[in-house]
Every structure is written in structure tokens, then in C-alpha cells.
């Protein structure tokens, strides 16, 4: 039984910042991100996520990476859009956390590879 409606799906995200990812929504409320941009192609990790579904195909997907990077995606599946708010350690910013916001396209893809 699926734990959320995105489980088993794969998407491509292309942010205006230049970051690009393949996102695999896995079982056990996990997500695998894999960079697909040339500079760091193949960088990947599996994260435990918190996911909420809202009316109109909107999802909030959040996680904290081992490095302390906090990531929050707001995904609009009906309009193929994603906005991301991230924070990471930086002592020069309020609370010692630097924010980073970017947005871009979100597209589900069909894949024959197991996710």
C-alpha cells in the first residue's frame, strides 16, 4: 500500500538557478535525488521526506540532508511548477542559516528503471 500519492513516480526538475534533478519518490516516505546537470551529474542521495498533499495537485515535500541542508519543495503537478526554499549553515546570516530560493519546471517521466 502506498504511503503517499507520489510514491513510485519519477520526475525531472529544472530550476532557474541551473540546478537540475531526477527525483524518484520511493517507498517508506523516501526520495532519491540525482543531479542531472553536467557540473555534478550523478551526485545522488536518498532522503526521508515529510509530504503533504493539498487540493489541486499541490504537494509540499520537505527533508533535512545529512549535511544540515534543509529543503522544502512546493510542487504544483497540474501546472508543472516547483518552488524550493532551502537553508544551509552560514554564520554571516541571521540565525546562522542562509536561505536560497529558486523555482522551475516539474515534469513526471515514464521510466522502465525500477525506482
UniProtKB/TrEMBL annotation:
InterPro entries: Calycin, MoaF-like. It comes from the Bacteria. Residues 8-92 form the MoaF-like domain. It holds the Pfam family MoaF_like. This is MoaF N-terminal domain-containing protein. It comes from Enterococcus xiangfangensis.
Amino acid at each position: 500500500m502506498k504511503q503517499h500519492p507520489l510514491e513510485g513516480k519519477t520526475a525531472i526538475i529544472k530550476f532557474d538557478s541551473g540546478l537540475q534533478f531526477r527525483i524518484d519518490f520511493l517507498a517508506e516516505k523516501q526520495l532519491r535525488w540525482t543531479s542531472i546537470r553536467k557540473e555534478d551529474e550523478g551526485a545522488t542521495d536518498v532522503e526521508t521526506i515529510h509530504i503533504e498533499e493539498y487540493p489541486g495537485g499541490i504537494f509540499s515535500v520537505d527533508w533535512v540532508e545529512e549535511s544540515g541542508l534543509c529543503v522544502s519543495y512546493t510542487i504544483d503537478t497540474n501546472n508543472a511548477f516547483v518552488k524550493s526554499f532551502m537553508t544551509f549553515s552560514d554564520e554571516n546570516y541571521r540565525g546562522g542559516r542562509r536561505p536560497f530560493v529558486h523555482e522551475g519546471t516539474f515534469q513526471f517521466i515514464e521510466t522502465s528503471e525500477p525506482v
